């Protein structure tokens, strides 16, 4: 299953990498790709969207499902 969440505050490639690494650490996530221009992240796996949003917000970004 692929979940797309909105992520605000990514301004560079390092931000994308941080969001991707943060999401990949969430249990149940098999892959994550962040796109700063689209202001979103696509996440593969069975993690709940609310857990994904919380992880991204804990990393310092604004997110919503």
Structural summary, described in words:
By secondary structure, the chain is an alpha+beta fold. It contains two helices and four strands; from the N terminus they run βαββαβ. It has a single domain, classed as Alpha-Beta Plaits (2-Layer Sandwich), CATH 3.30.70.100. Strands 2-3-1-4 form a four-stranded antiparallel beta sheet, with helices on one face. It is globular and about 30 Å long. The protein starts with a strand and ends with a strand. The model has no long low-confidence stretch (mean pLDDT 98). It holds the Pfam family HMA. InterPro entries: HMA_dom, HMA_dom_sf. One of its GO terms (molecular function) is metal ion binding.
Features of the shown structure:
65 residues; alpha+beta; Alpha-Beta Plaits; 4-stranded antiparallel sheet; 2 helices; 34% helix; globular; plasmid; HMA_dom; HMA_dom_sf; Heavy-metal-associated domain-containing protein; metal ion binding
Quick summary of this structure?
With 65 residues, this protein is of the alpha+beta class. 34% of the residues lie in helices and 35% in strands.
